[in-house]
Known about the structure:
The protein has helices at 6-60, 140-143, and strands at residues 74-76, 81-91, 97-106, 113-115, 120-128, 146-153, 160-166, 174-176, 183-184, 189-193, 197-203, 208-209, 216-217, 223-226. It is α+β, with helices and mostly antiparallel strands. The protein has 2 domains: 1-60; 74-226, Glucose Permease (Domain IIA) (Distorted Sandwich). An 8-stranded antiparallel sheet has the order 9-5-6-7-11-3-2-13, with no helix packed on it. A hairpin with a 6-residue loop joins strand 6 and strand 7 (160-166).
Amino acid sequence: MKHKGKARRSALRLIVGALAVLVALIVGGIIATFVGSLVVTLATALLGVWVVFTLFTLYFFRDPEPLVPSASTAIVAPAHGKVDCIDQVEEPLFLGGTCQRISIFLSVFDVHVQHAPVAGRVACLEHRDGQFLNAMKLESAEHNENLLIGLDSSEQPGEKVAVRLIAGLLARRIVPWIALGDTVARGERTSLIQFGSRVDLYLPLTAKVQVRLNDKVKGGQTVVALRG
Length: 228
């Protein structure tokens, strides 16, 4: 019989079409569920990373108030960290010759705000470009980017004290908060070095060093030397 089975084929086409739509909806739903789940998972992970980063950043940029000693002969640590070198070096730029150096290493877990070791006037602010060697290495002071802060002490006439802020492998940004000619109080905040670094303190040969190797010091608070 003519046209036999056309109705069934039409029905089958509708059934197959409906099935295709249904399969497409199911596959789309599965993909949407997977992608949605992936987005939710990724967003949750990123939020977790952001929370950890936020907490670490708040911890890293903490800035405790130092208990500045009142003794007129005291010279305080310019930074928080561990004393890993005490020696004599040449510092020709500001001190003009041989002086004592106390080098302090700052890990990523130390406070990274620096303080004035003595009261006085900022007489030198010398920035030098350089490399970004690991600040754990003492020789990084000679090769890395650094900023020398020279202070004409108001606590003892003629006394010159200098602080060198040294960038490290991660610490690639030195942020001074002082300008040439500014006056600072002992223990006053002067700068910030971001993420692991080193700070050298240069003192006259007459100063009596009060710290030892591996001592932990607090910026603006720990007495590292006394005037002779």
